[in-house]
Amino acid sequence: MLDPALLPLIPGDTISMGGIRFDAFQKTETWKRLAASPQWSRQMDEFTKEVGFDPRKDLMEILWASNGKESLFFVRNRFSQMNIEPLVRREGFQRLAYKGYPLLGDEEFAALFMNASTAVVGRTARLRQIIDSRDSGPGNVSKELLAKAETIPASAHLWMVATPAALPKFEADSAGTSNMLANLPRLLNGVQYLTIALDMTSGVDAQAVAYCVDDQCAKQWQNTIKGLAGIARITLPEAQRTQMLPLLDSVEVQVNGTSTTTKFKADLATLERLQSTFSAEVSRRPN
After folding, report:
1. d(C-alpha 50, C-alpha 185), whole Å
2. What is the value of pTM for the model shown?
3. In this structure, are 187 and 88 located in the same domain?
């Protein structure tokens, strides 16, 4: 799952990471349907004009990595074929250099170009640390985190893996009065790793795996996910509930020892109906 060209660049203090495999995503029916949307095309045209390259043609992969305080974005792209002058013309942006590596941005935020196909975007000081670490060898990213990343199906177009430190923390009484939700803080604290994978070939086929500290926590995760799906059937407004039923009906939750795997799927027609329903709901809300 992890691109060997990007792996040596990931800092050793990374506690969560994820990515989008654009090259594979662009070959799917979901992408084709998305690209045909006038709104999407307009947004992509504006993005291309602003930054100087077309993600519909040039972008191969984006990997993000976070240490819990800040994130870095690793971009695999056909930079040798793109014109970066529009970025240079942005107010305050300039061409920088550090130890022979070109940077584009300012002293606060920049893009570091490692070679003709790889760039890293983030705080300028952090980018300089990456260059320094290359001189002393790659960072020691958690072996457990990398191992969990490798369990993500190769078919996933979008994916994420996180350690306990990256998961949200809640106070025991902050989840509301529902007994089910009241257990959520303890359940999250019982998760050692969490992975999410989305296959967007024709709609969405999702899989999330919670690796728990013990069997009891894994079983409680199963009960909680099933319970939340049941609550959604009851509490959602009628229009949204009708459109959500195919997705809710597809939810599967399985326990395997200390891990809980949740799967659900929705075809393109269901996704489009959901988008239309929720967009209409948002447009009716007062500003």
Report:
1. 42
2. 0.84
3. no
